Amino acid sequence: MFPILLLLFILVPIIEIGLFIQVGGFLGLWPTIALVLITAFVGASLVRSQGLQTLMNVQNRLQQGELPAQQIFEGVMLAVAGVLLLTPGFMTDALGMLVLLPAPRAAIAKYLMSKMVVKSVGGGFHGGFDQDPLQRNPFDQRGENGNTFEGEYERKDDDDNDRHKLN
């Protein structure tokens, strides 16, 4: 993993510098700087809107009782797209825009999720009860941490209290 990161930290700036020289030679200094700033602002606003849309999709999935794994993964990818778009450079902007578009982002997310392996540590769920659940008193209403009580309450308005005071 380290050699790949080292290669990226060396190659990406070299490619970006080369692209700056080419675009700067074609457009000039100030239009090139303006183009970099415009892509950063447009990218940031698009990341915000796409992020809100992804958040709404996550909430809809949760309300339907489904696990929104792909939407959460796409949200992480949107954060990466935001970093790429805010990083000055044309190659990083192109990659950020690619991740920002919904169809390529969904395809990339599906591909990356298919390559991921989820492992369970410890072989299952272990509760945090302070006693064995079978030996616990069924009338004891304490929760796992001893601070949860089951009960009922009734809310009374101020008008009801004033009426009772007058009687």
Radius of gyration: 28 Å
Mean pLDDT across all amino acids: 77
Strand content is under 5%
Order of helices and strands: HHHHHH
Helix content: 55-70%
Strand count, sense and closure of the main sheet? none
Sequence stretches where pLDDT stays below 50 over 5 or more residues: 124-131
Can you tell me the overall shape?
elongated
Strand segment count: 0
Count of separate DSSP helical elements: 6
Describe this structure in words.
The longest helix has 35 residues. The protein has 167 residues and is mainly alpha-helical. Helix 2 packs antiparallel against helix 3 and helix 3 runs antiparallel to helix 4. The termini are far apart. It is elongated, with a radius of gyration of 28 Å. It is 68% helix and 0% strand. It contains six helices and no strands.
